[in-house]
Amino acid sequence: MFEGHDTTEAAISFAIYLLACHSDVQEKVLEELKSVFDWSQPLQPTIQQLGELKYLEMVIKEALRLYPPVAAILRDITNDERLPSTGHVIPDGTVMIVSPWAVHRNPEVYPDPEKFDPERFSAGETARRHPYAFLPFSAGPRNCIGQRFAILEMKSVLAKVIWNFEMFVEPGFTALPGWKIILKSINGVRIRLEDRRTKYVNTGF
Ligand code: HEM
């Protein structure tokens, strides 16, 4: 359950929160959806169509940067390892913690790191960064085998939500990320949904 379910659930919740906080980004995702799908029809995307949603993918990656569900990754060091950058030796037997949270909020890698900015994941910006600057799915031989599926799942859910609803965050609400084996919002995600077609508003936060 840890690998496939809770991680994706946390990632979708944070992405919804960030979209609700940024109506301009929500609008851009809707415009992209309208360029791929027929607005008069319910949304039933194929895998190929999901692949066309490049901006939504940038939004998802930026949400995973700010709130990586697996915020710490443990590795056992089984041989003395010399770091090429500093010459430091990490001895055999050490347990190392790699923190995607810390890497993703390093201002030398991501200027103004607290800012939600999907443009960081445009093709040009991504090419300028080290491949290990983005680690929500870890890296190397034991990385996440479900990462492509996870991105598709997130795209499918978020596309359907945005197709049908405009999202607003509850005034004054701020999500508090906390460690519950995976990273979650410990005070939930409090948003209001407005049906795009009927304008029916769910006012219960
Ligand atoms: C946003 C969603 C997800 C995130 C952030 C995520 C993240 C990760 C991370 C960081 C690891 C490596 C853990 C470590 O090295 O200690 C991992 C491993 C793994 N993930 Fe995911 N994951 C996600 C979704 C999924 C899904 C949807 C599946 C299955 C369909 C999945 C299956 C696995 C499996 C089986 C492993 C263990 C791989 C191994 O040990 O060789 N994950 N995941």
From TrEMBL:
Keyword Endoplasmic reticulum: yes
Keyword entries, A-Z: Endoplasmic reticulum, Heme, Iron, Membrane, Metal-binding, Microsome, Monooxygenase, Oxidoreductase
Pfam families, per database record: p450 (PF00067)
Known cofactor(s): heme
Residues that, per the record, bind heme: 144
InterPro entries per UniProt: Cyt_P450 (IPR001128), Cyt_P450_CS (IPR017972), Cyt_P450_E_grp-IV (IPR002403), Cyt_P450_sf (IPR036396), Cytochrome_P450_Monoox (IPR050196)
Membrane topology qualifier: Peripheral membrane protein
Protein name as catalogued: Cytochrome P450
Family per similarity comment: Belongs to the cytochrome P450 family.
Gene Ontology MF terms in the entry: heme binding; iron ion binding; monooxygenase activity; oxidoreductase activity, acting on paired donors, with incorporation or reduction of molecular oxygen
Gene Ontology CC annotations of this record: endoplasmic reticulum membrane
Signal peptide start-end: none
Function: May be involved in the metabolism of insect hormones and in the breakdown of synthetic insecticides.
Primary location group: endoplasmic reticulum
